[in-house]
Amino acid sequence: MKDHLGRPLVAVTGIGIVTPLAWGREANWQAVQAGRSGISRIRRFPVDKLRTTIAGTVELPEEAAGGEIVSSPVRVERMAAAAVEEALAQAALGEPGAFPGPLMVGMPPVEYEWPQRFELARKAKGDGSYRAATEAATGRRDLYETFLFGGVGERLAARFGTTGAPIALTTACATGASAIQMAVEAIQRGESDAAIALGADGSVQPEAVIRFSLLSALTARNEEPEKASRPFEKTRDGFVMSEGAAALVLESLEHARRRGATVLGIVSGCGERADSFHRTRSNPDGSAIIGAMRNAIADAGLQSSDIGYVNAHGTGTPENDKMETLGMRAVFGDAPPPISSNKSMIGHTLSAAGAIEAALSLLTIRDQVLPPTINHNEPDPAITLDVVPNVARKVSGLKHVLSNSFGFGGQNVCLVVSAAP
User: Fold this and answer.
1) What mean pLDDT is predicted for residues 162-183?
2) What's the CA gap between 346 and 355, in Å, rounded?
3) 3-class SS at 97?
4) Is 348 a catalytic residue?
5) Is 173 an active-site residue?
6) Distance from C-alpha of 195 to C-alpha of 204, rounded to nearest angstrom
7) SS3 of 386, please?
8) In sequence order, which residues have a C-beta less than 8 Å from that of residue 145 and are 6 or more positions away?
9) What does the alpha-carbon distance between residue 69 and residue 190 come to, in Å, rounded to a whole number?
10) At what angle do helices 25-33 and 353-367 cross, to 10 degrees?
11) Would you call 368 exposed, middle or buried from its count of C-beta atoms within 10 A (0-12, 13-18, 19+)?
């Protein structure tokens, strides 16, 4: 029940997933194994003036029925709640509305979006000053609470009855993995027998799309959306923005065994490494990426040769895939394990990515199936990795998976998930 450092082993007993592919864990996993793309044209807002007009969007039920489009924090909360509910149902831990542990919420930074800004401008009667907008917002508690960073966590904690103050955090594209790491460490320290770790993002809105476009981070391959995300492929030209959520119910293995829970796997290692080289680019020497991978493997008490598969960060930008290849070669040498990118199908779910990919890594071990990297038509001669091109692969004996999350601002977190002992 203890790891090589004498810490409690941390088991996963519940998984919930929402992505553009589907609502639900098993529906998502079936779609990923089939190599299906969830990328489509953006229908949520006008795109005729935008360079990129595609994304991986998750429609809420009322939006699909033609109702009003909700703001990003509302979308984050709705997807997050669905993922947590699914994970809790599988874990069967605690009474409804009374979870015996804390909540760690990985979510994006939030700010007023254009509909709210236009509303405040109208109420300010055409005065475009910051003071006028602030005065117009006075007394708007609903607006304040909706867009308050951490408000999503507060409401989810109240809904599911978690203990203590919920932790809301953002570490760019590593956010979901950071939430899992914080939950794991809380259990390892003996602060709780259980925790909920959650990553969620609903940022497909005009300003976010424009900002990523200005960074030259997004692909503009709009003609065939399902073929636009091309991690590790020679013609890759940027990532596809997406959204979704994933939740893990975590417990000490001892606690899970004692109550007779089904253990889905173990989060056996967490590694992080910061890189202050640039706001968006990685240091060309790859030191932080390499360090995060090595730290996760060492934290799990493993050797690099024990890793049988890597769930890539794999965004499809020219630089990221080159740097991840560099990291793979430094960590694993001349015989790296297979690596594939879920983002080829789901797109880049930003704050949710680390949690979604950790969840899919656990399902990879459960079913002994490596998900594919789709849209891999023209191999890049500079990327000499087995990327599981286009078709899922059945394997046997897979026990340990490394899941990589590399974020803007040099925020890098890697997780090792392992088969239950």
Assistant:
1) 96
2) 13
3) coil
4) yes
5) yes
6) 29
7) coil
8) 151
9) 43
10) 70
11) middle
- Sorted by sequence, the CB contacts under 8 Å of residue 247 that are 6+ apart come out as 14, 15, 16, 80, 83, 84, 86, 87, 196, 197, 198, 355
Which domains are seen in the chain, by residue range?
Answer: 11-110+148-418 (3.40.47.10), 116-145 (no CATH)
Tell me if 341 sits within 8 A of 304, measured CB to CB: no
Angle, alpha carbons 60-63-67 (nearest 5°): 140
Note the pLDDT tens digit of each residue in 353-384: 999 999 999 999 999 999 999 999 999 999 99
User: What mean pLDDT value characterizes the chain?
Assistant: 93
* Residue of 4, 255, 270, 348 with catalytic role: 348
Phi, psi of 414 (to 5 degrees): -125, 145
Name the more confident of 74 and 123.
Answer: 74
- Residue 267: pLDDT band (50, 70, 90) is very high
Catalytic residue among 255, 270, 313, 414: 313
- Given a contact cutoff of 8 angstroms between Cβ atoms, the answer to whether 41 and 226 are in contact is no
Which two tokens mark 87? 């994970």
Q: Could you say which of 173, 255, 270, 414 is catalytic?
A: 173
pLDDT of residue 128: 65
DSSP 191: S
3-class state of residue 266 by DSSP: strand
Cα torsion at 44, 50, 53, 58 (round to 10°)? -30
User: Phi then psi for 238, rounded to 5 degrees?
Assistant: 145, 165
Contacts of 302 (CB under 8 A, 6+ apart): 268, 269, 400, 416
Tell me the average pLDDT across 158-186: 96
Are 202 and 20 within 8 A, CB to CB? no
- pTM comes to 0.94
Q: Assess whether 278 carries a catalytic annotation.
A: no
Q: Token pair of 148, please?
A: 């308050």
Query: b/e string for 42-72 if b means 16 or more Cβ within 10 A?
Result: beeeebeebebbbbbbbebeebeeeeeebbb
The H or E element that residue 267 is part of is strand 265-274
pLDDT band for 126, please (50, 70, 90 cuts). low
